[in-house]
Amino acid sequence: MRELLAALTAAGHRDIGHLAGPGDYVHSRQRERVWRDFLAEHDLTPGPVIDAAFTYEGGIAAAETLLSLPGPLPTAMFCANDLSALGFVAELQRRGVAVPADLSVVGFDGIQLGEFVPPRLTSVRASARRVGHEAARILLEVIDGDSPEPAVVEAATPVWRDSIAAAPMR
Q1: Is 0.85 surpassed by the pTM of this model?
Q2: Which of 15, 54, 167, 170 is a good FRET partner for 136, with 20 to 30 A between their CA atoms?
Q3: Cβ atoms < 10 Å from Cβ of 53
């Protein structure tokens, strides 16, 4: 996430919003915390935060919410989930917002579908298989009454595609 946020700031983005996931999901709040910490470290004021379901439809609803807010749009949005990012981008484009020329968008998950929609979605990819394996291992250890060791998964990696552009001049 930090690499993608660094790429956005390197492209001149200073107003970066966050399409968060459902508030009761631990990983939604973890991703929001990384976003907030990064912005604070770089003396940037957080842009709008919109909670949305981790679905395509949730992304559409988030775009509708963003477009209804007063004031100018942020120049970039960090989406906590690729599927919602795809719905978000589709709705923005349907309403005349050019992605990434008007608003850069990045996601999280690195799903393959992000490769096939315009613009191709820049994202973060973690190994879903390894995360699932570790989650199952921990669950089975807890069921057996053991105290599980922490999960061990490789670091997520950026998936560089086309949804980041230089911040628009406003």
Answers
A1: yes
A2: 54
A3: 17
